[in-house]
Amino acid sequence: MKKIMNEPGMIVEEMLEGIVKSYPELVHRVEDSRVIAKNQEQKQVGLISGGGSGHEPAHAGFVGEGMLSAAILGDVFTSPTPDQIHTAIKAADQGEGVLMVVKNYTGDILNFDMAKDLAEMDDIAVEQVVVDDDIAVENSTYTAGKRGVAGTILVHKILGDAARNGASLSELKELGDQVVATIKTIGVALKAATVPEVGKPGFELAEDEIEYGVGIHGEPGYRREKLQPSKELAKELVTKILSDYTEKPKEVGVLVNGMGGTPLMEQFVFINDVLGLLEEAEVSVTFKKVGDLMTSLDMQGLSLTLIDLTATNWQTALTSDVQTISW
Amino acid sequence: MKKIMNEPGMIVEEMLEGIVKSYPELVHRVEDSRVIAKNQEQKQVGLISGGGSGHEPAHAGFVGEGMLSAAILGDVFTSPTPDQIHTAIKAADQGEGVLMVVKNYTGDILNFDMAKDLAEMDDIAVEQVVVDDDIAVENSTYTAGKRGVAGTILVHKILGDAARNGASLSELKELGDQVVATIKTIGVALKAATVPEVGKPGFELAEDEIEYGVGIHGEPGYRREKLQPSKELAKELVTKILSDYTEKPKEVGVLVNGMGGTPLMEQFVFINDVLGLLEEAEVSVTFKKVGDLMTSLDMQGLSLTLIDLTATNWQTALTSDVQTISW
């Protein structure tokens, strides 16, 4: 294992310090916690997210004016504990309640739920939106139902904009559920990630092999085959995602998300193919984003996310200015 | 070689299309060229940069209001041709002249110089600033003198801000030369990049080996040794850079730049160590930036850049808002 780190067991702590020391004008660490919160407090519903570390810039990179109020950093690929989530809720609450954006993994669901109970004992109103955008497989290694992956960042963005514009907790909850229902993602892996404390890749792919549908913790996908040209990868993912919609969207947003070990050059080649296919399919694309947003340590690969924007006004929220490290 | 691409020989063309189709609100392609230019035209000195591709987001990701007017994309690790650079100069010129920011490689110097001659025949005033921030070695594979690497992006940022605030061509040239003189960078590689048309890594490192001072095209560095903890890597680079300044800076900006295959988690661990060492050395840090800005395809590794900000007001320029894909 070749990683730039010190003790594997200290990697999250040291990363967290690195983040808050690098961008003190945007975020700070809530004392004695694994919570990164935005500096600027506004009278609005608090919006929090989090999960295991190893998905950087998610979620700390999306804390700031117009997106998240706070993020909780669990150990690598491990849900944060209820008390840490509770700390984030308290940090985010401005008296208007707090919405939690939770990726659909059994451990996260359990712990965010317990944190909600703790917060309600403090009389903080809490709601949650569960993101399960990964349509590759049902009931994966750590999940009942579908996994939550890169589409989560679009949920942060749309809800973050609504929250700063004064949406109430119940309005945010309703909007969040609507948004989640329109988002679909599939990933493709060229090479597995190595968890620092494990020291070897989570799975093995042959030198000429790829796997469709791998999760962001290396959970199994749905098919292995020989490495394909970008056009073929794009065709597989676009076709599968479009056919998963009950009604074909007239208008979508596209997110191409690098997994951590795949350079931007390849991501831009891939989105070029995706956009070509969507044009052929007569699907209009009114929002695009490319880059490493929800990674899986040093995994090589990427994911494609579509969000159905037909008859919505979410483009405004998706393109509004924010003050974060990484959007 | 595992890369998401189609024909290796088409990778730059397809990436370029991917970039302009993804961010049409910010940039466009100058017709029949390898030039990406910003949409918004202001009456200011034009600022252009470019070089071989494979360093994404450099330079196209830094085109936009407040940074570059245009970027030229050469083939992978290959200087753009004089006629392409000439096209960029014409696109960037608003009647106030054009400043070229050139990384110090023999091919780039030659071709930008020829383009300057071509532009002067069109009566466009052109100046250039040559960036040679890589203090690892003198006279490398493609370079007479020192190489130009990640510090180039800080030059874009400071000059971009000055240009939009009305600096004249001669003022920009003078400022650029001053800025370059204060920037020092060294990289460290864990694994070499693979050029798409070559198909195998540019050099080989053993499974437990790193190389200090490797260039962004895989040029040799100055020492190989066993993989070190982040703290030791930071110590090597900070010590070497600080001791290269004639007078120890009182105040610096820090850029930690990922090489393309190194996730943000590791970059934040590393900057945490760097900031600790600078604090011990009583050097104040008033600007920080972390991320993949000047990559080397899928190379694993990173570089550290310091810019001496003592007695300057460049922090304002470094932190000002811009409208680009990747700053």
UniProtKB/TrEMBL annotation, chains A, B:
Coiled coil: none
Keyword vocabulary terms for this entry: Kinase, Transferase
The keyword Acetylation belongs to this UniProt entry's keyword annotation: no
Domain of life, source organism: Bacteria
Domain DhaK: 7-327
GO molecular function annotation: kinase activity
Pfam families: Dak1 (PF02733)
Protein's recorded name: Dihydroxyacetone kinase, DhaK subunit
Organism this protein belongs to: Candidatus Enterococcus mangumiae
